[in-house]
Write a structure and sequence with these properties.
The complex is a heterodimer.
Chain A: E1 7-10, E2 22-31, E3 40-46, E4 52-59, H1 70-75, E5 86-87, E6 95-103, E7 112-118, E8 124-132, E9 148-154
Parallel strand pairs in A: 1-6, 4-5
Antiparallel strand pairs in A: 2-6, 2-9, 3-4, 3-7, 7-8
Chain B: H1 2-36, H2 45-55, E1 59-64, E2 70-76, E3 79-85, E4 92-95, H3 100-111, H4 117-145, H5 159-189, H6 218-221, E5 228-232, E6 243-247, E7 250-254, E8 261-266, H7 269-282, H8 287-298, H9 300-316, E9 332-337, H10 342-356, E10 361-365, E11 378-384, H11 398-404, E12 412-419, H12 428-439, E13 443-444, E14 449-452, H13 456-470, E15 486-496, E16 504-511, E17 529-532, E18 541-544, E19 554-559, H14 567-571, E20 578-584, E21 598-603, H15 607-615, E22 623-629, H16 639-647, E23 653-658, H17 667-673, H18 675-683, E24 687-692, H19 694-708, H20 715-720, E25 724-728
Helix pairs in contact in B: 1-3, 1-4, 1-8, 1-9, 4-5, 5-7, 5-8, 5-9, 17-19, 18-19
Classes of the chains: A mainly beta, B alpha/beta.
Keywords (chain A): Signal
InterPro entries (chain A): DUF2271, FAD/NAD-bd_sf
Pfam families (chain A): DUF2271
Chain lengths: ~160, ~725
Amino acid sequence: MKSAWPCAIAATALAVPSFAAARPVALEARLADYGGSGAYVAIYVTDAKGAHQATLWVAGTKSKYWRHLRDWYKASGGRAKVDGVSGASVGAGQTLRATVEIADALLDAGYEIHVDTAVEDMAENPSEVVVPLTTGDGSKAVAGKGYVASFRYTL
Amino acid sequence: MLRTLHSIPALIIALLLVVVAGAGVALSIFPAFEHAGAATGAVDVATLAARVDARLDGAETIMRRPSGVIVAYHLAGQAQRASVVDPATGEALADWQPPRAHRWLRDLHRTLLLRNDGARIAVGIAAACLVLVVVSGLFLLARRMGGWRHFAGRMRGDVLQRAHDETARIVFAGLLLTALTGVAMSLATFGLLPEGGDSEPFGMHASGADRIELERMPALRSVDVAQLKQLKLADRDDPTDVIEIETAGGTGVVDPATGTWLWWQAADGWQRFHATVAMLHTGEGAWWLGLLLGLSSLTVPVLAATGFLLWLRRRRSLPRLVGNAPLRDADTLLLVGSEGNTTWGFAIALHDALVRAGLRVHTAPMNDLRAWGARTRRLLVLTATYGDGAAPASASRFLTRLGRMAPAAALEFAVLGFGDRQFPRFCGHAYAVHEALVAHGLHALAAPATVDRQSEPEFLQWCAWLARTLDRALDVRYRALLPPTTTLQVVSREDYGIDAQTRTSVLRLAPVREHGRRARLPRFETGDLLGVVPPGGVAPRYYSCVSAAADGRVEICVRRQPGGACSPWLADLQPGATLRAFFRAHEAFRLRAGSAPVVLVGAGTGIGPLVGFIRHNVAGRPMHLYFGARSKDDGFLYGDELQQLVADGRLRTLTTAFSRAIPRAYVQDRLLADAARLRELVVRGACVMVCGGRAMAEGVARAWEQILAGSGLSLPRLRAQGRYVEDVY
């Protein structure tokens, strides 16, 4: 299961190139053993009203299925920049790990990290994880409402 | 060209397709299986959602599987859980999970378990090749059957060819549908087809007022569950959250406070197209179609294997020419029209003989004709016929090319046609070529001659004529490829006839233990041919088998023909003597299964297979035998046994005609005398089997034409239905 191998990726691309100052953030999403095919996962930043600010990671390479990551697709209008921040879908019971750059301006400013998931033939879970993006709360793991057993980010 | 389009892609993708189709067959079972477990009953989405919401705490999403099974996702404690629910009550029946086997098979079907885009592309290309193979195969088959009008007609050819053709004819539609939809899905996967549809707009919120009951929401009431794909309920803790619904008809957002549409978009053409394609390909939502397509995919290994063997057979008989003169130097142009390359075997023998006789011969496929050589004096054409009078593969463009060429009045020509008398337009292409050459101003040396079913004597007879015409000695060494032989020992013989030189013998042969292996006979049926190569001979002679392999003995009738290459030797073999022989299936002369009456007509040794059919008629099927012999005391083969067969009911009637009695009578006279009864039998479904010499068979056919006149049936029609078959020598 290639897609399921825990992937540690050090991406150098800027998540939000327009912000000058940025720092790395490590993302970790462990999926439950939901018993389906590989999951598509979108991890992204919105403001309090849900407006898209930055896409941190998209797992699943077929863009035709991205519409099933519903909140992310809706919020970004399907036009999010994903260069350098996308990878293979994540198998059941596997963990997605990625390190990406995040603009300092997004930290401690009322923004949220959302996680959307979707699996073929199974339910879609838009915004199954919603956590505030703060320098303090980072390492606390939270469970999602869908396939995400635990999610945390480390700044 | 058509054949290349058929064979080459098929060979390349065969193995891949067998795997992909195999997985597809297994997958096709799931929709039917799941459908059987789905609850039925019409209900609207509002009612369903209210029932589920009432029964399951924390219900989040309700999905309807294409099979009709309803699955609800709900929070159980901290974890999400998927349950199959009863749409009538909303009650959870069981946990739901996509079957593990289904996922594995789907991975195999889509990516050969490699799960990468390279494999996806390979499978997509295989599907595209399959479209090409099915379409080209369809045109090949139509040509072989003699045009689209005869597409549903009776198949001809040997077992391998018929297995391939008959299977293809049944499943082509299913395979084409599977392949086309597979290509469409593959293109969609790689974004090469538009997906259609717009994403729902961002920022839609509920009005925030108190929510009304799900059951009363007009938007949800307007959607039938049969249309539902997915329904996401509004988050209880978020007053601004909305209800999102996806149906077969489109996508929408509902305000939980009013129960009305905030937004609705009907599915557009592309979305409906992709949905239809997916349904047709997977059978999800149309389980019976899935099963049908699965059954047609099941034949892919059969088609691949038989197709490969046919291709191999054609390749093996590819021509190898020695001493082929260039066209500009050649005095003799030998053109060959061949479909399966068997005609090349004869052409090469003739080519070699002509070269040995000192002629400068240029031999080529008929399609290679571009111009006459400056020194060409004569043209010899050896051509097969494809299907019902069509040109074979290597002659498909000949007539068009001939039309464009300069007239060549000085050229003389002869045409030899190869064919199978079972086909209504026997050697049709040879006659067409002959006519075209005459019309083009060439001088015909003779009317076209024919060779039936690769008959070596007929070929050699024509070569002898050619030798006389050219005034050269032609040493034609034709060697048919002989199958492996079996050693047989003469067990007994019975002789009939007054003159020892021309008597007829019934020989019974048994297999001999060889190389320490158990003595056994290969499979053969009554009416199949025993090929015997006489000592010092090269070409086999064929004798119809009276017995079948199950009888444990080979029984044949041999008429001694003084001066013959084989029969005097064979007819004089005494019990204990051995010979080597092989069996050749004679599919066209098998007794049709069923209980319909059978009219058997034979003369001389032609009685052999007919007696065999009667002996095996334990079921007492009505059989009527018309048998012609010289006289009651001369050549009346199986006379006593026939009386016995009548007595025990295996033979209904026995009618004999003796050509040396007074008054003399032939079988056709007896047939005509019984015309009324025979017409009645045939109208009621009887089949007719004729075995014997050519003259007798022609006389019998004329008699049947008279018998059938005015009955609404005709001889060509009976032949086309396989109800009038001949074994003629």
